[in-house]
Amino acid sequence: MRPIVVVHGGAGHIPSERAHGSMGGVCAAVKAGYSLLTAGGSSVDAVVEAVVNMEDNPHFNAGCGSVLTAGGQVEMDALVMDGRDLSSGAVSAVSNITNPVKLARLVMEKTSHVCLTAGGAAVFARQMGIQEVSTESLITEYSRARWKRNQEPGANPVECQMGKMGTVGAVAVDSEGNVACATSTGGILNKMEGRVGDTPCIGSGGYADNSVGAVSTTGHGEAILKVVLARHILFHMEQGRSVEEASDLGLSHMRSRVKGLGGVVTVDAKGEWSARFSSNQMAWAAACDQTLHWGLYKGEHFTEAIVQTL
Ligand SMILES: NC(=O)C[C@H](N)C(=O)O
């Protein structure tokens, strides 16, 4: 099977001064995941690597760069799923760690549970030897300014969020045909403390099953949860739809049923892939057959050969 990685850096409107950074970020992340895959790594290794790369990049709403809660705190959600046996790991409302997706992977591999939240997740992170970091180190000037703006009377954080989302995610197929997904986010702007979005919920923020494929989602979390977007798309693929048709059907169902906008990256077990969105933009990138693909606006699709350095 030809190895494939597809990533997104969030659906929404990306201000022009941030577009370059977002595009560079998704391309760097997909290349990081792809070089692991071509060196024999698994699809789980590849999606985690790609997502860590974007969590560490302050351009995205995940890890450093996460949006803030109403109280000005950072509460992050993440998910990882292994399509071989449906093993899943997730964390919600975690603070003070740099890479929530790594903690989600540890939940999957080291516990008998699927999701740990808030204080319990923090205790587990300490037990696993994950370094604690200050909240300040996860907050960028940009996220603090947006938080402040949305504290003002008359502000509409939900509307503002619909414009700029920035969650990150990845799907991959490895040379053995195993699929995986991972998604990570700071959530939505000025959210209530304790709000859990779609990202850590299996079937909404992502899903991976070798018998069908894998999906990672981004967009308005409450809308994604209501239609269980990732699993909904895989259902259409089980009915014989292509990755692209199934992704579009899922997104249009979310739009017509609950007025939600978003985007998805999808792969199937045969090695087909797609990056689709109902929002104005979504930074996405894919790597397969030694070729890098990327785009930001609807219909945009650039390609370039990947030159691997030894
Ligand atoms: N930026 C996003 O995609 C937001 C995320 N889906 C959430 O609602 O938490």
TrEMBL record:
The record marks G166, T167 as: Cleavage. Substrate binds at R195, V196, G197, D198, T218, G219, H220, G221. Keywords: Autocatalytic cleavage, Hydrolase, Protease. GO terms for cellular component: cytoplasm. It is an enzyme of class 3 (hydrolase). One of its GO terms (biological process) is L-asparagine catabolic process via L-aspartate. The active site is at T167. Its EC number is 3.4.19.5, 3.5.1.1. One of its GO terms (molecular function) is beta-aspartyl-peptidase activity. It catalyses: L-asparagine + H2O = L-aspartate + NH4(+); Cleavage of a beta-linked Asp residue from the N-terminus of a polypeptide. InterPro entries: ASRGL1_meta, Ntn_hydrolases_N, Peptidase_T2. PANTHER family: ISOASPARTYL PEPTIDASE_L-ASPARAGINASE (PTHR10188:SF41), L-ASPARAGINASE (PTHR10188). Belongs to the Ntn-hydrolase family. This is Isoaspartyl peptidase/L-asparaginase. It comes from Periophthalmus magnuspinnatus.
